[in-house]
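Weekly structure sync, notes
Attendees: PL (lead), two postdocs, one rotation student
Agenda item 3: pending single-chain targets
PL asked that the sequence for the first pending target be pasted directly into the notes so everyone works from the same version. It is reproduced below exactly as submitted, 94 residues in total.
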Amino acid sequence: MKALGLWTSAALTIFVNGFLHGLGAGGAAALAAFKGGLSWKFALATGLGVAATNGGKRVLVWSDTNEIPNPFPGWTPPAPSPSSAPSQVKAEGS
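Predicted structure, written out during the meeting:
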């Protein structure tokens, strides 16, 4: 479980750094929305949404090379029973 905790803390750090980096673009989007006549609440939500999207994008890119560790090493899921397998029905003439 320690590896999963370390992975989660690293992912959270990547997200926060991406969020903070995205505040520049988010602020520009918020300012454009506000100057466009939208309410300040919508402009704020737009800016925070852009920043959060940037943070999520950074975690997604980072997780491509840093796979989430298996919290249950040594455990494998049970094999499906034969009765739950889809039936193989042949069509006539084949």
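Discussion points:
- The mean pLDDT is 87.
- Residues 2-35 form the longest helix (34 residues).
Action: rotation student to compare against the earlier draft before next sync.
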